[in-house]
């Protein structure tokens, strides 16, 4: 064997070992799997293979349904179909989490500190800046839109606790780190959401000479209990179900049965519930999307910029501290996503369901779905494009990783 061939084989072996350490298993068909069919699209099931097509189709169905039959919004709201869809699609990722590893996640202060900075310093500041640029009346041709400005502030201060778990899983990120960071953000959010909204909506604009953006608004009645209730529903229920499933499953049937039989059986529920949720979310706003397409597009621009910038910056920061792919991906998606359910609930409670502020928060998840789906593909491209050997920060399977970088 020539030296070049030996080198290529050695690199291939090293890459396979890295992929195994990063949590890319043999059950995940695609270019990074080692099974004989890997790289062949025919090895993927129909739902995975055409996921982008299905999601855009679900968006179209939802908009069509909502615009043609606007009365459908009442049963969707009454039966809490959006909430049910969100809880169902979060259950499989949380059922896959090895909760015995979470103490290791919470001990890794390099990753937690990075996520804290991204979510509670960089994210709110970036969203506030975009709100000022697009709706603050400071750019010629873009008049001040106080209701859209406040809507973006409400969104930017609410860090994601729900759909991030789905995007992270689709991008082959670490379920353990995603769950740990989401739980970390949830606690922080209960304590600080009202303070952040007050600061960025009522303190900073007047200090910058933009009093008109919050004219007539002197306070926001946002209580920690409102935030806690939203988190309890959208995170608490699927979290408890995931913990219970693993505890009961592994003790009655064993670890091997749970990982090789139960987890593959419930995994398709994520994508099915995601498509269902997309349909009902877009149906809820179908009539308004058709009636106000310009406003939707105007709100979509800063949100799209926010999602892309936050993901790329956070992904780069994760790689910058030497985090492995799965950890970097979890960090990137946690920072790029937002808790729209909380933002919508608070906006409706404070300004009313028909307000421009509430409308802005509702447009948020409609934009998040296609943009974050695109970023899933970007993350998978980065997984293939970059050399991840030697990037060990955050890696949970220390037994296979050799000498790791100091995580503390």
Question: Any overview of this molecule?
Answer:
- Helix content is 73%, strand content 0%.
- With 408 residues, it is mainly alpha-helical.
- The protein has a domain at 92-271 and 295-395: Na+/H+ antiporter like fold (Up-down Bundle).
- Helix 9 (164-170) packs across helix 10.
- It is globular.
- The two termini are 43 Å apart.
Query: Helicity, in percent?
Result: over 70%
- The top-level CATH class of the domain at 92-271 and 295-395 is Mainly Alpha
Biggest sheet, open or closed, and with what strands and sense? Answer: none
What is the tally of helical segments?
Answer: 18
**From the coordinates shown, what is the CATH architecture of the domain at 92-271 and 295-395?**
Up-down Bundle
How many beta strands in the DSSP annotation? 0
Q: Point out poorly predicted stretches.
A: 1-9, 18-31, 34-43, 398-408
Q: State the separation between the terminal residues, measured CA to CA.
A: 43 Å
What key attributes describe this structure?
18 helices; disordered C terminus; mainly alpha; disordered N terminus; 408 residues; globular; Na+/H+ antiporter like fold
Summarize the structure.
The protein has 408 residues and is mainly α.
